[in-house]
Amino acid sequence: MKMEYNSTQSVEQNIHDIISKFGLEATSEMINNTKDEWIIPNFLAPQTITMIYASAGAGKSLFTLYLAKFLLQENKFSQIHYLDADNSPRVLKDRNLNQILDSFKDSFHYYFIDKPKNGDILTHLSKSNDLDGALIIIDSIRNFINVDFTKDDKITSFLDKLQKLRNLGATIIFLHHQPKQSEEENNKAYKGSTAFMDSVDEGYYLSLIKEHSVLSASELFFTLEPQKFRFDMAVSNFIINTDNFKFKKDDSLLFANNDIARYTAEYVIKILQKHTDGLPKSKLIKELKDLAFRDDVEVYRKNSLWRFMDKFKNRLWTITRETKHNTIRYKLINS
């Protein structure tokens, strides 16, 4: 929905008249008629700004290319414009971009952008007359920014340009990088100012699994973790097949990050299915330890377990604090 402001008032008589020149006044009918639309449930909504970030080599561009193809296959967008200032034609040849372009000649437009910082392409895009319903992908945002990454006011001013495109009807995804991470642990931080996260509708940390016992040699598994959880956004798992271009969302957790996570998820679900009213923290961990000992498998323990449980809060189970007994209760959703 494009925002159309009332800018025709000739006399500024009161507060309402003045503010109405700069914004659209909310009405009960407007809010009631607002649809909870999804492009991909709990992952991508129309007319939003989404940041996807990860460390170098994590597969951000590959994932987003396959995502774009999937969205066109499913008729989610009539036009997708991919602005690439990060990758070379040689890299895209290896990813079979030519086959995707042949399949969607009239709807998928891929551009190798030269010197985007000097051209201020985003300002020019705001003058376009066909932004409504379009998807614009920017790879990566650092190549389009000519200001200090660490300055909130500079980044906010830059990202205002993306918000203007969104208000004119576009859906926007941009890719971003992380600072260098240690080998032991990724802190899931993104590079630069806090304004990056403040100015987007959702920011996803992307992680990649290249090898897993349940994946074929040509399959890659991506997990995208929301950092803001707006609009019921949730952790989303995707599998892509680099041989046949298949792209599917998989939330079964059979493809969790590793075997420890997979067993933990399967056992927790099994336990909570038996206890439809849920279980307090102490009883859940006892039953989980008993099952793991019986089957001689490793599962998450203590703090690792609670972090894992938090990761899928309101997606697979609810987590509530009972003040009466000062305990935390876990309950399977739809049980």
TrEMBL record:
<protein>
    <submittedName>
        <fullName>ATPase, AAA family</fullName>
    </submittedName>
</protein>
<dbReference type="InterPro" id="IPR027417">
    <property type="entry name" value="P-loop_NTPase"/>
</dbReference>
<dbReference type="Pfam" id="PF13481">
    <property type="entry name" value="AAA_25"/>
</dbReference>
